[in-house]
Amino acid sequence: MKNLFEATAIKNMKLKNRFFKAAVWEGLATEDGHMTEELFHIYEELARGGIGTIFTGYAFVEKNEQPNPGMMGIYDDSFLQEYQKLTNMVHSNGANIVMQIVYGGSMTHLVPPSSIIWGPSNIKNELTGVVPVEMSKEDIRYLVKSYGKAAARVKQAGFDGVEIHAAHGYLLSQFLNPYYNVRTDEYGGSIKNRARIVLEVFEEIRDVVGKEFPIFIKINSEDFTRDGLTSEESIEVSKILEKAGIDGIEVSGGDESNLSVNKEGLGPARTKIAISKDRESYFREHATRLAQEINIPVILTGGNRHIEVMDEILNSTNILYFALGRPMISEPDLINKWASGDCKAPRCVSCNQCYKIYGRRCIFDQKK
Is the pLDDT of residue 367 over 80? Predict the structure, then answer.
């Protein structure tokens, strides 16, 4: 039997357990994306709390395009020293840390928005109302290079790997989505064409970080919209990336720019899942199928709560790792509790009130 607390390895990254901290935008960085003491403290709590590997909140790769306020940046070398301090601290506490990088596109909540926002096509974002500028092929080449330069900094700063954010309605996710991508060139049409920029980003990153540095991608299981990315297409994209040499797929889901997805609770951070264990791990079906069809690690995120549920999934499917977001916000030391034998349900009830609190803190910790 496989064990949630056994040591494994992905390339040259050794993992002390099968738990990842899922990426969450903390909103605590400076206006231009630099670290703060509050942000450093959050990662220190996590590293001390027993998690095997941390996915950071997303970091923007282009100085002139920031999707959200208070998010981390990785667009130039001014970040190297502070991130080296961060990675050294995490490693000293026995954990790994992987930086998630992103270009946001029209899925922006920055007020006012960045002056120029690119998209696969100039389709208005249903949630934000932003109409992006359709990317030229020159723009695409430039952005691909920006991802590569960002990943080089990630490696130089001592991170254990890099994750490409291609989910939840951000730019790379929009390229995969035929609603937002109506291009008629080699970047539009078939799923192979729509995935072309994602593949090019991966290949650029691989060229600059080398063969042994782990590269992950976060991708929707499906968009849960009538005209969006389907489960079958998502698996096809994952197979393309596996063939190219990517090291792991994190499965999420839901195009958050779609109003019906938000209204119907089909996004990545669903509520009311604490009602029943049957509501947990809600991207399990797709991840199970994906893990049967590819031979690289699949990381399941979204609604992972009870340790016994994850143990059952681990030993009945080919899914190898589990990412937790909101439970780790509520209890940064949750994994240490479980490792000590205290395997009760996490305190988190998936109310999503943490998203309304400064620093993404649990509502149970707020002063009355």
Answer: no
Q: What is the pTM of this model?
A: 0.97
The secondary structure of 305-365 as a DSSP string is: --HHHHHHHHHHSS--EEEESHHHHH-TTHHHHHHTT--PPPS-----GGGGSTTS--GGG
The confidence score (pLDDT) of residue 368 equals: 47
- The 10 Å Cβ neighbour count of residue 222 is 20
β-strand pairing of 13-15 with 8-10: antiparallel
pLDDT of residue 275: 83
118-119 and 96-102 strand pairing: unpaired
Question: If residue 198 lies in a helix (H) or strand (E), which one and from where to where?
Answer: helix 196-209
Cα–Cα distance measured from residue 179 to residue 190, given in angstroms and rounded to the nearest whole number: 13
Tokens of 338: 């479980």
Catalytic-labelled residue, pool 58, 75, 83, 170: 170
159-204 pLDDT, tens digit each: 999 999 999 999 999 999 999 999 999 999 999 999 999 999 999 9
Gap between the Cα atoms of 279 and 346, Å rounded: 15
Q: Which CATH number fits domain 8-365: 3.40.50.1220, 3.20.20.70, 3.30.450.20, 3.90.76.10?
A: 3.20.20.70
- pLDDT bin (cut points 50, 70, 90) of residue 9 is very high
Examine the residue annotation and report whether 358 is marked as an active-site residue of this protein: no
Single-letter code of the amino acid located at 335: I
Task: Name the nearest CA neighbour of 219 among 152, 174, 280, 264.
Answer: 174
Cβ–Cβ < 8 Å for 183, 189: yes
